[in-house]
Amino acid sequence: NAGVTQTPKFRVLKTGQSMTLLCAQDMNHEYMYWYRQDPGMGLRLIHYSVGEGTTAKGEVPDGYNVSRLKKQNFLLGLESAAPSQTSVYFCASSQGGTGGYTFGSGTRLTVV
Amino acid sequence: AQKVTQAQTEISVVEKEDVTLDCVYETRDTTYYLFWYKQPPSGELVFLIRRNSFDEQNEISGRYSWNFQKSTSSFNFTITASQVVDSAVYFCALSAGGDSWGKLQFGAGTQVVVTP
Fold first, then answer.
1. Which of A7, A30, A36, A49 holds its CA 20 to 30 A away from the CA of B20?
2. Which strand (E) or helix (H) includes residue A12?
């Protein structure tokens, strides 16, 4: 049982480049989330989805876009990467949002 | 709006000492969930415990224990007889109702360093 899988695990981008982070879950969870983790700031919510075809903004959405075309996948896009987006990105899923959150192993992104 | 405060940035102890991590939360909702997660040096997030707002019973699980007090909006976590493997960053998190339902709000984390 894979749980939540994030790809890629590491990536280095040049300023202005674009990329997409993929999150896949095999638990049939309705809710999916993208967080970023920066030193001393905990995890902050970027975007989330409460079901297939829905997305909503979190705490720090600027510079990111997301899509949830299939229930099991939640994509995070950076259209024009900036050094301020250097961070560790975590995807998570949950059923109903009341607990039982499962996190992926993270993607370390560096923008130079 | 909801908020989680972990005032302790880093705690250093010698092995076998007890460690208590503080967590204070803010929410206007009467229904909410509180969590503790551990992030070891390998980077993954490990779920430790979840508590709902209607269950103030404190819990002990092995060397871990949790003290939930609604009167002071605190959800503290204690590691008894710490071990080197307990070295990690520990996060407290809150999921409340209303517009915040389902969204985990994390504290900044507390780095625990256990030395032999």
1. A36
2. strand A10-13
